[in-house]
Amino acid sequence: MYTAYSMRDVKPVKLSLNSKFRFKCGPGISCYTKCCSRINLILTPYDIIRLKQCLGLSSGEFLRQYTREEIEERSGLPIVFLKMREDQDNLCPFVTPEGCTIYADRPAACRYYPIGQGTLQLEEGIEEFYFLITEKHCLGFQEDHLWTVESWRNDQGVAQYDELNAEWKAMMLRRDAQSRKEVDPKQQTMFYMASYDLDSFRRYIFESRFLEVFEVDPETLTVIKTDDVALMKFGQQYLKYILMIEESMKLKEAALAAPAPQ
Ligand code: SF4
Ligand code: SF4
């Protein structure tokens, strides 16, 4: 199962898109920003694109300053968390008393909150589900505005995030399903770079032997030189190949006899 939020304080009730809940949040509420500390918030590749662009940083600078990394036990793949401040309150680095300073580019998990979202790999395909995160300090549940999960998603603008994160999440789940096949350190390094550190991945494509080994059509090459989202999607095809999930890349004839770069 993939979720972008730690499972503490989660009410274990599965919700569908039509499930209803009462909630309201905003600057007038007395618990304003109390949800923006001490959280294990997983960042997806698209979250990182939005954040590094909003902050005017390279992906490497963003990752160094604002994240920490762990190897996920089930998939054996690296996941990246937003690093809370190292003071006694462990506040999110982007929160101020006035609210979130990167609100327009806040991560998908912040948009969903107080809804959590999970993804399950079933035999018949992928199932998305939702659940309520009911933390004691959150007074929004005492308000009377009625939502469905779907109307909340629309209001918070998560559809684009879900669409752009879908393939990456599916890849994590497919790794889970591969009977815990070992992921070696080189594969982990590549996964980290092609998922999160896209500026380094771009340099790797254009400045290493990558293009001597893999067939990449000229149109794609032109686009990924400047477009981070296109590069992220290309990176996912590459990762499926090196993690042996799918034959998603084509080797050049001349490279077939030589080992692929990792
Ligand atoms: S990114 Fe913004 S919304 Fe999310 S935890 Fe930090 S301050 Fe709160
Ligand atoms: S704790 Fe709940 S109601 Fe208060 S600001 Fe956070 S999400 Fe809104």
What does this molecule look like?
Helix 5 (159-177) runs parallel beside helix 10 (228-242) and helix 6 (185-195) crosses helix 7. The chain is α+β, with helices and mostly antiparallel strands. The mean pLDDT is 90. 29% of the residues are buried. Helices cover 37% and strands 17% of the residues. Bound molecules: iron/sulfur cluster (2 copies).
Helix content: 25-40%
Largest sheet report: 3 strands, antiparallel
First-last Cα distance: 28 Å
The outline comes out as: globular
Give the integer mean of the pLDDT values: 90
List the helices and strands and how they pair.
Blueprint: E1 2-3, E2 20-22, E3 42-43, H1 45-55, H2 59-66, E4 67-71, E5 78-82, E6 95-96, E7 99-100, H3 108-112, E8 115-122, E9 125-132, E10 146-148, H4 149-156, H5 159-177, H6 185-195, H7 198-207, H8 210-213, E11 214-215, H9 218-224, H10 228-242, E12 250-251
Antiparallel strand pairs: 1-8, 2-10, 3-5, 4-5, 6-7, 8-9, 11-12
One iron/sulfur cluster (SF4) binds next to loops.
What keywords describe this structure?
alpha+beta; 10 helices; three-stranded antiparallel β-sheet; binds iron/sulfur cluster; single chain; globular; 262 residues
